[in-house]
């Protein structure tokens, strides 16, 4: 008789994760493409202030990786939605998996993608400045950045991208529950924001912005983001857990 | 040991039953043919066994575990059909490697040997394969995975006859060397009947017959002769199939409750009924088949 | 054991309507009759037969067991199945009593349908027999 294999969840998650890195190689090439486009946008400078007198004109351009990060967050969102679609789910179920290991390996994959996105976004900030210096002939006054700050910058950027992808993952999963969500969620969101901005003196979006983005304590920020993504991924996982596949 | 046990298994879609109170069990290391017409619920049943979709009610056990969402069942079974999809970024050889990483019994030598025999370019991509080639490649994965439960849903879709023959022989040879439980569904019972040990015939989501193929072949007989004599002999028996040929001749299929001598004494001809024909008769909604439509016109 | 697969297929396809296990047992009988299998010689296992004919081993086993039930083969525990001492005679007797009887039965019935007289039928049998004898 053929002996039965006892299924170890960690092993399966690891295999699924490696499988996904290989299978979604296209996602990483699109990341490069998107960041190049974002860099081109950035070259115009993010912020500009100028003063002029009759003798000279002074223009100060501040370059940053913000545009690149914003684009990368959109990339994270779209990548997350993509892997919740039916064909991508079915890739998992071609081989060994259950719904939990499929979700866990997806989260691991998105964490990896976010880290990669974070590193490249922050480093591209330097690239913008260097490009400005060489190709546009700007004088460069770079703010010195310590390695520690750099690392914190990368982690923060990665966490933003991860948040975006967890939102995308939930949206994608909801869309699998019912196609109606594809229209309902954006409609509700836009409608709500519109009403909120129109009638609310302190719009929710501003509160959200302050809650997540204006946080001086890194640890608190880290906890806030991790909790948020955990809730979003967890909800997606619960939603997917009763769904059929390959039907 | 029983590998599959279903009790009162029911699956409904939008209140319409697809599987209706199915009760059966499958013994270990048998090859069972799942036979039924289009829409009889074959694929739904196999997908429930693979844990892809969830039963509405009733009990399903695969290796003593509920298959839905079971990692254990997934690790010990494989479901092969022509809808099996793989990431478009992976070449065929990479797909084989990935498959090998998931299945502990995976035989890479067999996989590569079969891929070479069936003329696959290892650098090709799965979504560029033709219909028949897709089925062939998926079946190679199904064989080489050597899962204790191997589920093949219409595995030969689109394959030409030579490839089908080769595939069936490969399946049997690998089964002899590495016995496992195999469920295979097919429209072509006459092609697979030699491979099978048992047949599970379902009709409208219900179990119709579940018995060894050798018994199925003797389960019914055909009686041919003058109409009134055939009707006289088969009086009281259920006619599984009837066909009136010409003015006074009739061919009837009945359960095998008659002695040969009895039939011949009545001046009638007794013929064996091929298993594939019998399955068609049993799953027809009317006794006369397509002819009934024309007879009513 | 050597065998020719092409040959094997031809034998099995000769009568598709007969159950395969019956065909298997008849094939082994023929192998015994034409001396390919001697008394006390080991016969093919169910797995070998399955491989040879591309059939399910359970079907092959059923064919073998049919011959064990008729004492044409005997089982040695753990060793397999062997040809009985009297196998040839038993097959001859069986074919005489069963196959030949059946054929005669069919012959007589068909003659009856065609309204051929007994004398005429006997005449035909004799003519056929002298032809076979002359060959």
Automatic annotation (TrEMBL), chain A:
Organism: Pseudoneobacillus rhizosphaerae
Keywords assigned: Membrane, Transmembrane, Transmembrane helix
Protein name per UniProt: Uncharacterized protein
Transmembrane segments: 21-43, 63-83, 104-127, 147-171, 180-199, 219-240
Automatic annotation (TrEMBL), chain B:
Keyword set includes RNA-binding: no
Protein's organism: Pseudoneobacillus rhizosphaerae
InterPro entries membership: AAA+_ATPase, ABC_transporter-like_ATP-bd, P-loop_NTPase
The ABC transporter domain, residue ranges: 4-229
Gene3D superfamilies noted in UniProt: P-loop containing nucleotide triphosphate hydrolases (3.40.50.300)
Superkingdom, taxonomy of origin: Bacteria
Assigned keywords, A-Z: ATP-binding, Nucleotide-binding
Name the UniProt record assigns to this protein: Vitamin B12 import ATP-binding protein BtuD
Coiled coil: none
Single annotated GO MF: ATP binding
TrEMBL record, chain C:
TM annotation in the entry: none
Pfam family, one: GntR
Gene3D superfamilies reported for this sequence: Winged helix-like DNA-binding domain superfamily/Winged helix DNA-binding domain
GO MF terms, alphabetically ordered: DNA binding; DNA-binding transcription factor activity
Recorded superkingdom: Bacteria
Keywords: DNA-binding, Transcription, Transcription regulation
Domain called HTH gntR-type: residue spans: 18-86
PANTHER family: GNTR-FAMILY TRANSCRIPTIONAL REGULATOR, HTH-TYPE TRANSCRIPTIONAL REPRESSOR YTRA
The protein, known as: HTH gntR-type domain-containing protein
Lineage: Bacteria, Bacillati, Bacillota, Bacilli, Bacillales
């Amino acid at each position: 008789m053929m002996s039965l294999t006892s299924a170890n969840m960690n092993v399966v998650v690891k295999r699924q994760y490696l499988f996904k890195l290989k299978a979604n190689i296209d996602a990483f090439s699109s990341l490069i493409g998107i960041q190049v486009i974002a860099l081109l946008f950035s070259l115009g400078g993010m912020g500009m202030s100028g003063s002029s007198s009759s003798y000279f004109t002074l223009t100060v351009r501040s370059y940053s990786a913000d545009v690149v990060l914003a684009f990368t967050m959109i990339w994270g969102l779209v990548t997350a939605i993509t892997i919740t679609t039916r064909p991508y789910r079915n890739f998992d179920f071609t081989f060994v998996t259950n719904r939990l290991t499929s979700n866990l390996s997806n989260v691991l994959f998105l964490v990896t993608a976010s880290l990669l996105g974070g590193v490249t976004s922050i480093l591209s900030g330097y690239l913008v400045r260097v490009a400005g210096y060489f190709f546009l002939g700007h004088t460069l006054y770079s703010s010195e950045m310590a390695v520690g700050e750099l690392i914190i910058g990368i982690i923060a950027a990665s966490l933003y991208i991860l948040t975006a992808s967890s939102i995308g993952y939930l949206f994608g999963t909801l869309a699998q529950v019912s196609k109606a969500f594809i229209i309902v969620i954006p409609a509700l969101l836009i409608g709500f924001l519109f009403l909120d901005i129109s009638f609310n003196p302190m719009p929710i979006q501003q509160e959200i912005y302050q809650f997540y983005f204006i946080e001086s304590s890194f640890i608190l920020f880290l906890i806030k983001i991790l909790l948020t993504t955990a809730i979003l991924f967890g909800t997606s996982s619960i939603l997917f857990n009763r769904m059929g596949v390959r039907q | 040991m029983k590998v599959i046990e279903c009790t009162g298994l029911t699956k409904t879609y939008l209140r319409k039953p697809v599987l209706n109170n199915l009760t059966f069990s499958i013994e270990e290391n048998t090859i069972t043919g799942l036979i039924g017409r289009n829409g009889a619920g074959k694929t739904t049943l196999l997908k429930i066994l693979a844990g892809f979709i969830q039963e509405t009610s009733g009990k399903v056990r695969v290796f003593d575990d509920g298959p839905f969402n079971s990692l254990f069942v997934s690790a010990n079974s494989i479901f092969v059909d022509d809808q099996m999809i793989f990431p478009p970024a992976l070449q065929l050889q990479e797909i084989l490697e990935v498959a090998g990483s998931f299945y502990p019994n995976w035989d890479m030598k067999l996989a590569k040997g079969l891929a070479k025999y069936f003329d696959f370019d290892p650098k090709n991509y799965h979504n560029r394969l033709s219909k028949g080639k897709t089925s062939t490649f998926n079946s190679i994965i199904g064989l080489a995975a050597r899962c204790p439960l191997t589920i093949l849903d219409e595995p030969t879709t689109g394959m030409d006859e030579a490839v089908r023959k080769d595939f069936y022989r490969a399946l049997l040879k690998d089964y002899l060397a590495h016995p496992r439980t195999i469920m295979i569904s097919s429209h072509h019972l006459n092609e697979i009947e030699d491979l099978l040990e048992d047949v599970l015939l379902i009709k409208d989501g219900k179990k119709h017959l579940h018995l060894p193929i050798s018994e199925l072949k003797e389960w019914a007989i055909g009686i041919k002769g003058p109409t009134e004599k055939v009707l006289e002999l088969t009086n009281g028996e259920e006619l599984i199939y009837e066909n009136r040929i010409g003015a006074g001749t009739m061919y009837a299929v009945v359960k095998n409750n008659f002695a040969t001598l009895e039939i011949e004494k009545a001046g009638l001809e007794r013929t064996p009924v091929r298993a594939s024909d019998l399955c068609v008769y049993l799953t027809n909604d009317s006794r006369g088949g397509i002819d009934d439509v024309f007879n009513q016109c | 054991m050597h065998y020719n697969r092409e040959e094997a297929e031809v034998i099995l396809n000769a009568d598709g309507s007969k159950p395969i296990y019956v065909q298997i047992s008849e094939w082994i009988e023929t192998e015994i009759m034409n001396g390919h299998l001697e008394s006390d010689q080991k016969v093919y296992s169910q797995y070998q037969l399955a491989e040879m004919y591309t059939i399910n081993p359970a079907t092959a086993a059923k064919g073998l067991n049919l011959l064990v039930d008729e004492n044409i083969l005997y089982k040695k525990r753990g060793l397999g199945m062997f040809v009985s001492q009297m196998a040839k005679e038993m097959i001859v007797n069986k074919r005489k009593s069963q196959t030949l009887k059946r054929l005669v039965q069919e012959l007589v019935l068909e003659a009856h349908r065609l309204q051929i007289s007994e004398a005429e039928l006997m005449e035909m049998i004799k003519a056929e027999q002298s032809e076979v004898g002359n060959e």
